[in-house]
Amino acid sequence: MPIFSYLHVVLTTRLAELRRDGERGDSPVPTAVIIAGLVVVAMAVTALALAKAENWMDNIPDYTEPE
Questions:
Q1: C-alpha span between 59 and 25 (Å, rounded)
Q2: What angle do CA 63, 53, 50 make, to 5 degrees?
Q3: In this structure, how many other beta carbons lie within 10 angstroms of the beta carbon of residue 10?
Q4: What is the pLDDT of residue 18?
Q5: 11, 14, 16, 21 alpha-carbon torsion, rounded to 10°
Q6: Helix, strand or coil for residue 23?
Q7: Distance between CA 49 and CA 51 in Å, rounded?
Q8: What is the pLDDT of residues 37-65, one digit of tens each?
């Protein structure tokens, strides 16, 4: 039984410390917005690279597309 009392005291003390601490880190919303922005930028870079590669391939003389 003393182990349960010890665990109860440790848990309630830790929860009280967490409630007192006002700084809990950044909100997940700005992080999600940043990640979404990075995804959009990555898609734009990928589309630009694909367009450049296709343009380069189209300018090769006697180029035939694979079947």
A1: 53
A2: 130
A3: 10
A4: 78
A5: -160
A6: coil
A7: 5
A8: 999 999 999 999 999 999 998 888 876 77
